[in-house]
Design goal:
It is a single chain. The chain is mainly α. It is built from eleven helices and eight strands. The chain has helices spanning about 10-25, 30-40, 75-80, 90-100, 105-110, 125-130, 135-165, 195, 200, 235-240, 240-250; strands at about 55, 60, 65, 85-90, 100-105, 115-120, 175, 180. The chain has a two-stranded antiparallel sheet. A hairpin with a 3-residue loop joins β7 and β8 (about 180). It binds zinc ion (2 copies). One zinc ion binds near residues 45, 48, 50, 90 and 93.
């Protein structure tokens, strides 16, 4: 970000603040403070208890100093002077998460994992579920039933849309009662659309004589059995197709 192009006051403030902090972090006093308090063998992160240089998941841990109070940012002097009351040793990762009000999950730490949770929580969700199998099963059942209800609803809606479309003789009629030609709502009933609608009358080539079976698709395939070619005509499908008869009983 360039200061010349930035006109937003908040963005300008952030920019100048970052620049100021970067300058403080280049100061020899900051390096001195790190060497005396963070890079010593007995120092460890107060949240995850890892040490400086410790190898964790293939990478060395780096410690730093966390300024736990906002007043330490008021001056260079306060920022760069060790204050055991308001400063603490943390790793870079916990330092970043501290600003978001998060800490590592203690149960995950024991398993060698770093999972951050909100400061008010005592453990992460998977750890809680691990200790409460009944709760886990209940949640699983809730999720399954929710997924099933969505699936059922979608399938019912698809069936209804298909039936609605099959019940109308005009091929320009779209689900939602709109017209594919004019784009507006179709004002005609099923029985009168072919005689009263000027679009349907003038475009006779678009007019479809409805097949008695609503599962018969334009490519002569059966919608009920994918891959199966319907072998009946308009007359024989009513009398010979077992599925058609079954539909009529419903
Ligand atoms: Zn840490
Ligand atoms: Zn956990």
């Amino acid at each position: 970000m360039s200061s010349i192009t930035t006109t937003n006051p908040a963005a300008r403030r952030t920019y100048s603040r970052r620049k100021m902090l970067a300058k403080w972090l280049r100061d020899p006093r900051w390096k001195q403070m790190l060497a005396e308090h963070a890079y010593i063998p007995e120092a460890e992160c107060v949240y995850c208890h890892r040490k400086h240089g410790q190898i964790w998941n293939g990478k060395p841990v780096r410690l730093t100093i966390n300024h736990a109070s906002r007043h330490l940012y008021l001056s260079e002097e306060l920022y760069l002077t060790w204050d055991s009351q308001y400063m603490e040793i943390t790793c870079l990762s916990c330092n970043r998460k501290y600003e978001r009000g998060m800490k590592p999950c203690p149960s995950c730490l024991k398993k060698g994992k770093m999972v951050y949770i909100l400061d008010r929580d005592s453990e992460c969700n998977p750890c809680y579920m691990e200790k409460n199998p009944v709760e886990l099963q209940r949640t699983q059942e809730c999720q399954d039933s929710f997924k099933k209800s969505i699936k059922d609803y979608n399938s019912r809606r698809a069936d209804k849309n298909r039936d609605d479309k099959a019940a109308r003789p005009c091929v320009s009629w779209k689900v939602g009662n709109t017209c594919a030609i004019s784009g507006v709502e179709c004002p005609f009933t099923k029985s009168r659309m072919m005689t009263l609608c000027p679009d349907a009358v003038s475009k006779k080539k678009f007019v479809k004589i409805p097949f008695p079976c609503d599962r018969r698709m334009l490519n002569q395939k059966c919608r009920r059995k994918p891959g199966l070619v319907c072998s009946y005509n308009r007359t024989t499908c009513k009398t010979k197709c077992g599925y058609f008869k079954e539909r009529q009983k419903l």
